[in-house]
Amino acid sequence: MARRIHANTLAIVNMLKAMDDGSTRDQLIEVSGLHHNTIYRWLFAMRKAKLVHIEGWERDWRGCNVVPVYKLGDGKDAKRIAPITDAEKAKRYCHRKKLQAIGNALTGVANV
Fold first, then answer.
1. Which residue has the higher pLDDT, 36 or 63?
2. CA 94/CA 81 separation, integer angstroms
3. What's the whole-number mean pLDDT along residues 72-81?
4. What is the secondary structure of the chain as a DSSP string?
5. Which residues of 12-39 are buried (b: 16+ CB within 10 A; e: fewer)?
6. How many angstroms separate the CA atoms of 105 and 22, rounded?
7. Average pLDDT value for residue range 51-57
8. What gap in Å lies between CA 16 and CA 32, rounded to an integer?
9. Cβ distance 15 to 31 under 8 Å?
10. pLDDT band at 100; cut points 50, 70, 90
11. What does the CA dihedral 100, 105, 110, 112 come to, rounded to 10 degrees?
């Protein structure tokens, strides 16, 4: 007789598999299907027990904030990368606006 595997057990197994290669919190949420608070609690407990460490840091979808990448194993946490400064954000914004104005001029669209 085959035993049934509970959904939570399967979610945790999928989460551990993903962390074997290194994953962000959002990737763990997607792969496991668990609520973000549950993932947060699990990561907190696993870091406290030294089962997980921060392998590295990635920028978020906007490229501004940094997001930790968790990996299984007792390792040393990677140093956090510096966030983008306000001056750099302003420079990127001005560059985007300039490109948008050039595109509008080439297509004949009025600036809005």
1. 36
2. 24
3. 90
4. -PPPPPHHHHHHHHHHHHHHH-B-HHHHHHHH---HHHHHHHHHHHHHTTSEEEEEEEE-TTSSSEEEEEEESS-PPPPPPPPPPHHHHHHHHHHHHHHHHHHHHHHTPPP-
5. eebbbebbeeebbeebbbebbebeeebb
6. 45
7. 93
8. 9
9. yes
10. very high
11. 20
| pTM higher than 0.85 | no
| Amino acid at position 66, single letter | V
pLDDT tens for 2-50 read 777 677 888 888 888 999 989 999 999 999 998 999 999 999 999 999 9
Neighbours of 42 (CB within 10 A): 20
CB 53 within 8 A of CB 33: no
